[in-house]
Amino acid sequence: MRTRKRKNQSENEQPVRDDRASQDDILAVIADIDSGHEYYMAFVDAFKLDGREYVVMYNYEPDDGRHADPEIIIVRSQRHVDGEQYFLSIKNRKELDAAFDMFFQRFEESGGI
Questions:
Q1: Quick check: 57 and 64 in contact, CB under 8 A?
Q2: I need a labelling partner for 85 at 20 to 30 A (CA). Which of 4, 7, 67, 79 fits?
Q3: What is the domain range of residue 87?
Q4: For the whole prediction, is pTM greater than 0.70?
Q5: Number of structural domains, the chain?
Q6: Helix, strand or coil for residue 17?
Q7: Band (22; pLDDT cuts 50, 70, 90)
């Protein structure tokens, strides 16, 4: 998956926000490069572990009372030489467990629980 900016979006434009998005959340449109399907995602955290970059996010939907609580996903983040940011699924269970443990530790240290 990769992020996509709208062509008429200026670099100075602020990210879209609403009641469910905290002041620290960044909302983005993520496009699946295989299917073309777009997902609206809210970024929760980003960190490096063992030389790799990871991003934690959840599927963003406006709060209209009909949606279940969001579930987080953790993906590997990479920048392509052309500047595009790509998000890759983590297929290795040990890598995913290590990334989750790092996120959870960061979450606890920030006072999340």
A1: no
A2: 67
A3: 2-109
A4: no
A5: 1
A6: coil
A7: very low
